[in-house]
Amino acid sequence: MAPLRRPCFFPARAAFKGAVLLAAALTSGAASGATLSSGSPIWRGGVELLSEAPPIYLLRGLLSGAEAERLLTDYDVELLPEFTRSAMNSSSPAFKRCLQRFPKEACASVSAGEIQTDPELYNSQVMAEVQHRVAGFAKSPQENVEATWLFNREAAHQGLGLHLDNHHHFMFPRRAATVVVALRQDPIGFAFPLAKLRAGSHPLAEDGEFVSKLQAEARLLPFRGNSARQSLNSGSLQEALRSICRSSKQQQQHHQPSPIRLRQGDALLYYNLDADGEVDIRALHSSCLAASPDSRQFFMANFVRTSSLLNLHRSVRTPHPIVEMHSWIGARRADNGLDAGAVWVQGEELGVLDGVDCPPSALLSMVRPGSAPGEQPALLCRLPQSSEFVVLQPGEAFEVQMHLGNVGRKPWPEGSVLSLRGGQALGAPAGIRVPQQVPVGSTVNLVLDLTAPEQPGTRAHAVWSLADALHVPFGVLLWVDLAVAVVHQRSCFMF
């Protein structure tokens, strides 16, 4: 796999505004009557720069009212909460309606009134046009744009809370920009506490020391096992969000920070990465909570990646986090020469389980322990189904032995650790230090003492990998799973 490169479609800061506006004019000219005047593009709906850090643009009338209503109808957006309530009942009318528009796994796992479309299954004529328009505004190939997410946000639900759109461990390729479009007039609004909004910024956005501290944390997010909202929600950020969301019309007139509320068909285009391609902490944002219980946000979101999703993941639907993590590690491997493989031992013979043995159609490879003492580790070329998880007794203690070998071009860095990358810790620490230097061609044994949850019927998994002293992962992904049952069964896992 090719090494990571700095994203190339970002214009320099000085040309940022002009490039985006020109893209808007060129792509919407026929439909929206765009013209060029004195070198500055003019769009009939209007384009307004709301913030320079991060760049946030208000695009008036990205959709017509008729287009917005058609999307609401085509995708049954008003029924999304009903789909959620019926997710476990495949015989319900809502679930059957969901299957007419979305894959079965999406209908069974929708959360809080949101769902991602699947262009291969169903893409209405209006949606196809909108996706083309969005790619043009973001100055990006259409294969870089994720399939559209649709939201029916209830008043009491604040979405993800304060978050970055690059929110999980290893979003790869990263989300460079986001286009959010209101499908109905928005009574709730979005807040960017750290953005330097022209209409009035929150004082926290002017605290350079605080922002720099958060920015440093944000740049570590891809290397830690935490999402942005878990790592960065400080009390001052939460208070800033509340302050912005409760602002009155009088405060807005005096240029006090206030939520960005969109009219039907209006859109926000904002950038999640800075000019160096790093996660921009000033893009931290959230929906506000509404005062009225009847208030809802109906909107759609498209996330623009730094490179093609089709080339890497063979679909424009959002990949599973573990699949993206696998791709991220693989891309860095060619650059840094670090690698680790799971070693099998049989008598005097030993070898390494290698992902190249997976079929070409596989999007990831991991190694999973055997399900009985002495059983060899197994190469996984897909995510296991929960029905395949190893059965353990409630609260049962078990041991995972990992026999790992340095199959890279360089010795493992001093201070390397076995690190939890995702899932549940299962009673283990988040990291275990590698106790010795491991030159190329050498092996090391590491042991995890784990405990199954007490609740019968619980299913859990954990994903581990080696990582350097800065918690940047490398090498094979190690998968441990379990299903808690009442059957007594002693288990020992070995790599």
Automatic annotation (TrEMBL):
> Coiled-coil annotation: which residues?
none
Q: Which N-terminal residues, if any, form the signal peptide? A: 1-33
InterPro entries of this UniProt entry?
Answer: Ig-like_fold, Nbr1_FW
Domain of life of the native organism: Eukaryota
Name-wise, this protein is Nbr1 FW domain-containing protein
Q: Which organism is it from?
A: Polarella glacialis
Q: Which UniProt keywords apply?
A: Signal
Question: Domain named Nbr1 FW: which ranges?
Answer: 391-484
